[in-house]
Amino acid sequence: MLLLNRKNIICVIILFLAIISKAGKVMAIDDINQSGSVFDEFNDEYHNEKKEEVKKKPIVIEPFCRNLSQSVTYWQMTPEDIQVLKNKGFGYSELIKIILISKKTEKPLTDVVTRRNRGEDFKKICERYAIDYNEIKKETKRIKLEVIIYEPK
Question: Mean pLDDT over all residues of the chain?
Answer without folding.
Answer: 78
